Known about the structure:
Elements: E1 3-10, E2 13-20, E3 23-27, E4 29-33, H1 45-50, E5 56-59, H2 60-65, H3 69-75, H4 78-82, E6 88-91, H5 94-99, E7 104-106, E8 111-114, E9 121-124, H6 126-136, E10 140-142, H7 154-179, E11 190-195, H8 201-212, E12 218-221, H9 230-240, E13 250-252, H10 258-265, E14 271-273, H11 276-282, E15 285-288, E16 291-294, H12 314-318, H13 321-329, H14 333-359, H15 363-381
Parallel strand pairs: 4-5, 4-14, 5-6, 6-10, 10-11, 11-12, 12-13, 13-14
Antiparallel strand pairs: 1-2, 2-3, 7-8, 8-9, 15-16
Helix pairs in contact: 3-6, 6-7, 7-8, 8-9, 11-14, 13-14, 14-15
Amino acid sequence: MAEYKIIAKDGRAKRAEMTTVHGTIQTPVFMNVGTVGAIKGAVSTDDLRAIGTQVELSNTYHLHVRTGDKLIKQFGGLHKFMNWDRPILTDSGGFQVFSLTGLRKIKEEGVWFNSHIDGRKIFMGPEESMQIQSNLGSTIAMAFDECIPALADRDYVENSVNRTTRWLARCKEEMARLNSLEDTVNPYQLLFGINQGAIFPDIRIAHAEQISEMDLDGYAVGGLAVGETHEEMYHILDEVVPHLPENKPTYLMGVGTPANILEAVDRGVDFFDCVYPSRNGRHGRVYTNHGKLNLFNAKYELDPRPIEEGCQCPACRSYSRAYIRHLLKAKEMLGMRLCVLHNLYFYNKMMEEIRDAIENHRYAEYKKEKLEGMTRGQKENA
Length: 382
């Protein structure tokens, strides 16, 4: 059901189109993160359609512990539950293995968690992760893996990566079984594998080559932006991406800033997700082509301008910096909502510009202009 077609290349940057059962994704794409089936900041799926969101990302672990994937399956799947008619990618729960360090125990069969909500014991292995994601009926399911801290020692990393590979084989087998069932929500559910290896290029390359042989629907680079420097991250991408299939989507998980995305596109990545735009927006920090602004700053209290001149997001079309600052200071939810909408629109618009630049073979020039504008503006805003 899925087809991935490269439309244009400019250096290593690729512009592609991915056809799925829930619609076509134009890449490079930034997936908007709605962990529990909604973007934090009172943003609805109608809002997402209006700001040009192509793919929404939700989290397997969080939906499993509350409200429950079985209930969502009974309802008809996550698309119907959320009233969202475009692609959804579900994260496998592997990142929670990393982030709930004090609450988990990793074994060959899978991981025992303590729920962060009520403390009850939960077991999740490759099969359980696939079953939950199948119940949700997402467009793209992620394989269950362990996200290793960047600075873990070599022995630990090697053992973990080998286990992640064994888990991936189990995920693929279970996904094929689930997709063949009569009552499955989405029989065309796709599976992406995840490359791990911390900051050891040789482990990462060997793992990339190993998982490439499994002929999955797409491949992610995981375990970055978890403690390493930006330079280390770019170096890993330089080393690893050439060893992943170019004719499949290449997804950099949980990254990142606009600059991170611009650099990663230049290294052949075309799927992204990150909580930054929504998290920063909820705290009054907004992205512009001239750097990031903190709207809590007193200098905006009488500023009649929109967040960014010429921006067509719902906030900039109607409201001033001064008014949005007032809302934030008064702890009115509308202030937070407008900032989140602006930031997501900014990211979605930037991806559109990136796609145009690659198609017109001017990506290097576009990236340079964009980065210089943001850096210069940041100094002026300081």
